[in-house]
Amino acid sequence: MTDASASERQESGTARYVRQLFTRNISAKIAATPMIVTVLVIFIGCTLWTIYYSFTNSRLLPTGTFVGLDQYTRLFGTSRWNVSVWNLIWYGVFSLSFTLVIGFLLAVLMDQKIRFESAFRTIMLYPFALSFIVTGLVWQWIMNPTLGLQGTMRNLGFDWFTFDWIARSDMVIYALLIAGLWQGTGFMMVLMLAGLRGVDEEIWKASRVDGIPTWRTYLFIVLPMMRGVLVTAVVLAGSGIVRLYDLVVALTRGGPGISSEVPAKYVYDYMFTAGNIGQGLAASTMMLLTVMIIIIPWAYLEFGGRGKKS
């Protein structure tokens, strides 16, 4: 009798806990329902849809038959895709490195409590407020061999001056890099500056008492303390690099030839221009895999490590 009553009490306690779990903050749960449905249906559902149809031979409509890895075999056998991947790797490595270094150096300069800091910070952050389409068009005008900087300098008598990078297949990637740095360095500077301003003032007092040079304090003491800011900056910049599309379309349209192609443009062209959904979805799946390679280590460092420490 005692065991039966104890079992009943345990069951009633479990039911009470489940009821409280669903009824607690019921208004917040109701308000979050549309977002949860959106995530499940649009993001997760469309991701699974993309992966599934990347294994089919779909053309204009997603109605093809299952062909296994044929689309991926064809993808990596296409010179245009291989060029776009190499361009993205080259652009990503140098863009990420230069953006972090230049952003940190600018943040260090801003951290010296200079006059008109707010004005300089606004000026440096202004390019980030522009879309990549606007950035691409601006730099297309600047680098235009006839109407841009080259034409202006030659009209002034400097016939030797050359700045026709967007017309040269061996230099066009540098043109993209310059435009990308102009766009993103200010945002990186603001992130770094926020991290620097979060460092305890006692650290600086202790370093001055110990006679440590300022540059060594920044490099070996302050920078390691900004790990969270650095990881966030790398993730934001890295995910943006993988999705690089509009800057290329506005500045070079993938040319000359295919010398400035990127994976996102490859996906768009095959899905909406060439009418080959299967090939486009295979390419987009590879882009998704690249983003996951960036996101998963970040999530592990930010959340997995904390769980172990606690």
From TrEMBL:
GO CC, any one term: plasma membrane
Subcellular location: Cell membrane
Superkingdom to which the source organism belongs: Bacteria
PROSITE patterns noted in UniProt: ABC_TM1 (PS50928)
Alphabetical list of InterPro entries matching this protein: ABC_transporter_permease (IPR051393), MetI-like (IPR000515), MetI-like_sf (IPR035906)
Record's keyword terms, sorted: Cell membrane, Membrane, Transmembrane, Transmembrane helix, Transport
Transmembrane segments: 30-52, 88-110, 122-142, 171-196, 217-242, 281-301
One biological process term in Gene Ontology: transmembrane transport
Residue stretches making up the ABC transmembrane type-1 domain: 85-300
Membrane topology note: Multi-pass membrane protein
CDD domains: TM_PBP2 (cd06261)
Sequence similarity: Belongs to the binding-protein-dependent transport system permease family.
Record-given protein name: Carbohydrate ABC transporter membrane protein 1, CUT1 family (TC 3.A.1.1.-)
Organism of derivation: Pelagibacterium luteolum
Lineage of the organism: Bacteria, Pseudomonadati, Pseudomonadota, Alphaproteobacteria, Hyphomicrobiales
